[in-house]
Amino acid sequence: MCGTCGCGDGQVQIDGRHHHGDAREIVLERDIMAKNDGYAAANRQRFRNGGILALNLVSSPGSGKTSLLVKTIEMLGDATCSVIEGDQQTSHDADRIRATGAPAVQINTGKGCHLDAHMVGHAVDDLAPSPGSILFIENVGNLVCPAGFDLGEAHKVVVLSVTEGEDKPLKYPDMFAAADLALINKADLLPHLDVDMDRIVANARRINPKLDIVRISARTGEGMQDWLDWIRAAQAAMRPATAAE
Amino acid sequence: MHEMSLCENIRDIIQEQAAESGFVRVNRVWLEVGALSCVEPDALRYGFDVVMRGSVAEGAALEIATPAAKARCLACGQVAVVAHRYDPCPACGAVEMQVTQGDALKISKLEVV
What we know:
The complex is a heterodimer. By secondary structure, chain A is an alpha/beta fold. Chain A has one domain (34-239): P-loop containing nucleotide triphosphate hydrolases (Rossmann fold, 3-Layer(aba) Sandwich), CATH 3.40.50.300. Chain A has 8 helices and 10 strands. In chain A, the strands form 2 sheets. Chain A has a 7-stranded parallel β-sheet, with helices on both faces. A two-stranded antiparallel sheet of chain A has the order 1-2. The radius of gyration of chain A is 22 Å and the shape is globular. Chain A starts with 12 loop residues before the first strand and ends in a 7-residue tail after the last helix. The two termini of chain B are 31 Å apart. Helix content of chain B is 27%, strand content 31%. By secondary structure, chain B is of the alpha+beta class. Chain B has 2 helices and 6 strands; from the N terminus they run H-E-H-E-E-E-E-E. Chains A and B meet through strand 3, helix 1, helix 6 and helix 7 of A and helix 1, strand 5 and strand 6 of B.
């Protein structure tokens, strides 16, 4: 029997090989994401070697990612931060980050709907984040496609603003499944909305039972300390055990 | 529409394989797209026809298998087939289910000439 396709008795041979007329089957079992995952693994190794905490921030457009990052960088103070900004067009977001003093590189994806690990590798070449620093990667505003692309980050952080409604985690489950932390942003608007914070949390946990969730407002500062504590804990977790001895 | 860039990956893998195995045309491509992978099969089909033009797989038929996804209930431990990430446990009704398989995305095999 043909070991490739399971047909016949393997008796038919042309030029010493088994054929099905002209056609033959090749079993591949190849991962379609392998190329991206290879670049992501290289990025991850590079971050690990430099002790760099890379966080991939994902959300819909308008969730307040950039305002949150500006506030975060200001509050982190002495920690060295750098930022990779992903948008289809313009360098507005990178300009806003640079105004804080933190270095930023803007990736414009053109028609592309997500950052991939190859683009991020080149941006890291340009940015050259210093050892022990924090690298924020602000992905293209899109709650769908960035979920499928590993960039080599330590964690995906999904930002959801309260105005987007309670059922977003159920409607766009892949992103919440891929994330380790959800920041529920613009919490200062809750008194003005018919949105139930508890239902947002329950829906997010239904998709991802292990998800950490922080209620936050970049505007008022609510929850910012919890977010900074989470970042510090993530930094501590990536240090080798020997460093603590 | 990230299905387009996934199709470019598929084309690159096929072109590499053509160089390695010495085929000049692909008649049929079998993909495995897990039920919970981040991919819409219809969008993949559309992108496939467009992206394969000019490659060894131009005009190839596309067969997409969608193996079922499984999840384990964090409350009772039951492993069950799920259609969505938010499906509750069929045994105990708990909503916290951890997906264990069903997000694979791969080229299974090719029929080539």
